[in-house]
Amino acid sequence: MPAAYPLPPLTSSLSFLPSRVASRLALGALLAIASVQALAAEPRTAWYVQGGAAEDAESLTVGVSRDWRWEKQYRYGHVSGQWQGEVGRWHSDSENSTQLGVTPALRWRPNGWSDGWFVEGGIGVNVIFPKYNTHSKEFSTTFNFGDHIAVGKRFGSDDQHEWSLRFQHFSNARIKRPNPGENFLQFRYTHRL
After folding, report:
1. CA gap 39, 72 in Å, rounded
2. pLDDT: is 26 or 192 the higher one?
3. φ and ψ at 158, to 5 degrees?
4. Most exposed: 43, 122, 127, 182, by fewest CB within 10 Å?
C-alpha cells in the first residue's frame, strides 16, 4: 500500500492570491467537497424569486436551487446544503447592472426550533456587468464574490414553500481597487418541486 502524504493547507497552496481571496476560495472548495461526502434523501430542485434594497440600488433576482445528496445530524442540529444559481437585475441612479451567480450554501436546522426554521450561509462567485457604478460607489471588476446569511422557514404539506430574509454582501475581496462592496437586504420566496 502506498504511503499517504498529508496535503498542504489549501490556503497556503493559494499563497499567490490576496489572503481574503484565498480564504473565500478555500471555504468555497470545502463547501463543494462537503457536497459529495454523504448521501441524503433524494435531492429536490426549487425555483425562487427575491427582491432587495441596498444603499444606492434595488435588485430583483430569479434563480434555481438543487439540494446536495449530503446531510448530517449533529448534536445541535441538522446540516444540509444546496447549489444556487441566479440572475439578478440591479437598478441604481446611474445605470443598471445584471448579476449572474453560482453559490454553494449550507443550511442548519437547529434542534429545538419549530419545524421548518433554518439558518443559511454561503459564498459564491458572481459576474456583474456592466461594472456596478452609482453616484457614491464604483466597482473596479465585473467578477465579485457574493456572501450571504439568511434565516427562513419552510412550510406547506410537503415543505414545498419557503421564505427567507437574507443579508448579502458583494465585493471583489480586494482583487483590484476600488472595492467599496454593496450590501443588500433581501426577501426570497422559494417553491420546491
Report:
1. 9
2. 192
3. -125, 30
4. 127
What mean pLDDT, rounded, does the chain reach? 86
Per-residue cell: 12? 497556503
Beta bridge partners, 89, equal 60, 98
What cell numbers appear for 37 in the block? 461526502
> In terms of C-beta density within 10 A (0-12 exposed, 13-18 middle, 19 or more buried), how is residue 167 classed?
middle
Whether omega for the bond prior to residue 8 falls within 30 degrees of 0, making it cis, is no
pLDDT in tens, 18-70: 666 666 666 666 555 554 444 446 789 999 999 999 998 999 999 999 999 98
Please check whether residue 22 lies inside any domain of the structure: yes
60: cell is 430583483
On whether residue 2 sits in a domain, the answer given is no
Count of structural domains, the chain: 1
> In the chain, what's the furthest Cα-to-Cα distance?
64
The model's pTM: 0.77
Residue 5 covered by a domain: no
